[in-house]
Amino acid sequence: MLPGVGNFGDAMGNLKKRGLDEVIREVTKKEIPFLGICVGMQLLFESSEESPGVEGLGLIRGRCRRFEEREGYKIPQIGWNSIHLMNGGKLFDGIGSGSYVYFVHSYFCEAENVNTVRAVAEYSNIFHASIEKGKIYATQFHPEKSGDTGLQILKNFIRI
After folding, report:
1. Is this structure's pTM higher than 0.85?
2. DSSP code of residue 160
3. Which of 28, 83, 101, 112 could form an S-S bond across to 119 if both were Cys, CB 3.0 to 4.6 Å?
């Protein structure tokens, strides 16, 4: 599991400094279930506008972008938002589309392959809120702060 709060570049730098980037690559190569949360999801991607020139883990093709400034929307998004499920998804067994989860983020991910996307949400624009690729799972939201829905997501991950 790779939780995350903070800056993409700093987090990636800390992973590399401790050799954890290679540990994560090895774990995912062995198809051991792996869960990225918030910045932990973003680090799975190739890059982020938050830290130009810093390469992510590159386990998911795509990039992370900053929310555009729009009237009526504060950045970062902090609070509850509904997710809309798509393409199935093992993390979401027993959870209905439209369920609410808790977000804290200024950046969101765009997966190149939409078949890896398992949930989307909308905040100033529609964005990818969860992905699944092989045994790699990730959520932009914080399941640990998302009440019963989040607990069910974590239980589903443990059962994988």
Report:
1. yes
2. -
3. 83
Please give the positions annotated as active site: 38, 142, 144
CB 89 within 8 A of CB 130: yes
Q: How many Å separate Cα 158 from the centre of its chain?
A: 17
Question: So where are the chain's domains?
Answer: 8-159
Rounded to whole angstroms, the Cα distance separating 119 from 130 reads 5
Question: Distance between CA atoms of 112 and 95, rounded to whole angstroms?
Answer: 25
Q: How far apart are the first and last CA of the chain?
A: 13
Of 111, 103, 101, the residue nearest 56 (C-alpha): 111
pLDDT confidence of residue 6: 85
5 has a pLDDT exceeding 80: no
CATH 3.40.1080.10 applies to domain 8-159: no
Per-residue pLDDT reduced to its tens digit, 76-98: 999 999 999 999 999 999 999 99
Closest CA to 102 of 152, 46, 149, 44: 149
